[in-house]
Specification:
Number of helices: 14
Bound molecules: the ligand Nc1nc2c(c(=O)[nH]1)N[C@H]1C(S)=C(S)[C@@H](COP(=O)(O)O)O[C@H]1N2, molybdenum atom
Number of strands: 10
Mean pLDDT: 91
Radius of gyration: 28 Å
Distance between the termini: 68 Å
Low-confidence stretches: 1-17
Order of helices and strands: HHHHHHHHHHHEEHEEHEEHEEEE
Amino acid sequence: MATRVPEEARGAPPGGDGAPPRPVTYGFPAPLWRALAARPLPGPFRDRAWRSPIRGPWLTSVFGLVLLIGLPFVIVTGLLSFIAYQPQFAGNAFPARVGPLHLPYFAWPTHPAWLYRLNQGVHVGLGLALIPVVLAKLWSVIPKLFTWPPVRSLAHLVERASLLLLVGSVLFEFVTGVLNIQYDYVFGFDFYTAHYFGAWIFIGAFVVHVAIKFPTMRRSLRTRRLRDELRTDVAHTVPEPLDVHGLVAVDPAPPTASRRGVLAAVAGGSLLVTLVTVGARIGGAFRGTAVLDARGRAAGSGANHFPVNRTATAAQVTAADTGTDYRLALTGPTPVRLSRAQLLAMPQYTVHLPIACVEGWATGQTWTGVRLRDLALVAGVPSPRSAQVRSLEKAGAFARATLNGNQVTDPHALLALKVNGEDLALDHGYPARVIVPAVPGVHNTKWVSAIEFTA
Ligand SMILES: Nc1nc2c(c(=O)[nH]1)N[C@H]1C(S)=C(S)[C@@H](COP(=O)(O)O)O[C@H]1N2
Ligand SMILES: [Mo]
């Protein structure tokens, strides 16, 4: 890449002892930036401190292109998940009050039944696979964090501020996301609210960054051919030409890795992360392969032979709550209270449906129980607009959930009493739990005590 050295570059600080000067342009107020440049900082702020011979606009652009293609899928599935949680119903786990940042609400469909499973599989699975790429991209631009003078023009100041938002928000989203799928709500704040607002900061910064950098990325990608790079070994690895961005080392060290090697390491990292987590998305016999997934490790230990999100003990649901005194309260024009025996006496239906958690794990099971729409009919609501489901659970964000009309009337939407031919285990929601096609796992309320149908 031929870079014309601008006029202002004369008198720019030399890159290091004997190294050629990096072409630098100073904007208004130039004397200030020059004065700063004349007082170089030690350590990583020295231009020659960064010596990897493979850092450069081409390598950064390759990682950038992968993220440009991959991250929009993570973003869109994340936003769709917000809609799937139906925050228009107060009490659903997603934050309802997100001000002007709320999305158009629509009735989340019940078909295809694997819709939310696919959505979260992409959101979590692709998000995890992109972690090595994000880290590699950050590694490739790290000299810019320590650039000196810290600012070269007002435009540069704005650019650096937007990069702070970009890097800060991408790290925040990945860290909160990974913590949420690995641990039980370790935050001192609400995960959904934080992850949602963080997402919008990231989306804004990402759009600005792409708009600014897209031409540079295209130009940089044309400077080398991927096919040639994949044939170049360490011995033949040479630095890219010195750039205005400050990525290429002014004083490169001898190569210890080829670009091919770095690309292979990143791709291998993505593949490895996928291999040790994807079992959580597939479920069944593959779940045990998800050794890096906390829910995966719980494989097989759960009742009814599939994982438990929250045990009855944790939810403080006792045998007394679920014993012979148990009654399901249905509210509507004709309120009724039904025992489990009465529920079992109603027409039973069997469906194979997944539980697909926001955390990206999923499990398909065969459920048997009564149709929610039959229960609505019993309560005197032939065409329900919504159903508020309550659990015996004393406390917790998931002790209630509101289903939309289409989710109540779907013939596959059940109040399940059995799973895989056995009675529900207490940990899976005995005496009765909701199972509705295509909804986020959290809407499949366990230990159901009451359902209020709204006409
Ligand atoms: N009452 C109640 N129902 C609940 C939950 C809960 O914590 N309490 N967890 C929900 C979540 S987040 C998911 S993903 C599924 C998990 O179902 P499982 O524990 O049977 O695997 O149940 C849902 N139903
Ligand atoms: Mo969940």
